[in-house]
UniProtKB/TrEMBL annotation:
It comes from Psychrobacter saeujeotis. Keywords: Cytochrome c-type biogenesis, Disulfide bond, Membrane, Redox-active center, Transmembrane, Transmembrane helix. NCBIfam families: dsbE. This is DsbE family thiol:disulfide interchange protein. It comes from the Bacteria. Gene3D superfamilies: Glutaredoxin. PROSITE patterns: THIOREDOXIN_1, THIOREDOXIN_2. It is found in: Cell inner membrane. Residues 59-196 form the Thioredoxin domain.
Length: 218
């Protein structure tokens, strides 16, 4: 049983209802919210570290390369269309000189070009001068680069950013979509097996076996 007098109880209730005290508590809560959000973001980023590049299902998969009519980066007086794309399996790589991950990826694309891999570039939302300087500095791994300054072609492909790469078969059908950089790890594990299946079918003048494509290009 409480021994507090009525006066003491009133004093305690008054303290509990004190606006200054309540305001201090609210201020502390608002101060904690940014810290909670920050630590949550750190946890999410930490969980993504070291994970391989995802190969995702996209609306562009198993469909022809979208119809386009765009200038050639090296000579903007020339117009490139689907008819100018290789008639054998190739990589379609979306890149930009402004893209940090593209810079990281670029040396490996140069290695692939040396290995005989045909890579068509899509220069995405870039300034011509910056793009050409980028290739002059780091080398040009592309058999040609299409200038997609407005980004509409890339949007039709279904990209979310750059770099992104599409494996296209000899019939112009997109068989694989890589989000992020192509590197030695995902090249050996995913991209090369897919491209090998497509190349074998192309050498035999045949359409690729869909069961093999599903297994090797997933």
């Amino acid at each position: 049983m409480s021994n507090n007098t009525p006066e003491q109880k009133d004093s305690q209730n008054s303290k509990q209802r004190n606006p200054k005290t309540m305001k201090k508590k609210q201020t502390k809560l608002w101060f904690l919210i940014p810290l909670i959000l920050f630590f949550g973001l750190v946890v999410i980023l930490y969980m993504r570290l070291g994970k391989p590049t995802d190969i995702v299902t996209n609306t562009a998969l198993e469909r022809p390369v979208p119809t386009f009519e765009l200038p050639l980066l090296a000579d903007t007086t020339r117009t490139i269309t689907n008819d100018n794309l290789p008639d054998k399996p190739f990589l379609l790589n979306v890149w930009g000189s402004w893209c940090p991950t593209c810079v990281i990826e670029h040396p490996f694309l140069m290695q692939l070009e040396e290995r005989g891999v045909d890579i068509v570039g899509v220069n995405y939302k870039d300034e011509i001068g910056n793009a050409l300087s980028y290739l002059n500095r780091g080398g040009d791994p592309f058999s040609m680069s299409i200038q997609d300054s407005l980004g509409q072609f890339a949007l039709d492909l279904g990209i979310t950013g750059a770099p992104e790469t599409f494996v296209v078969d000899g019939d112009g059908i997109i068989r694989q979509h890589i989000v992020g950089e192509v590197n030695e790890a995902n090249w050996q594990q995913r991209v090369k097996p897919c491209l090998t299946v497509l190349n074998e079918a192309n050498k035999n003048n045949d359409s690729p076996d869909l069961i093999q494509v599903e297994e090797m290009c997933k």
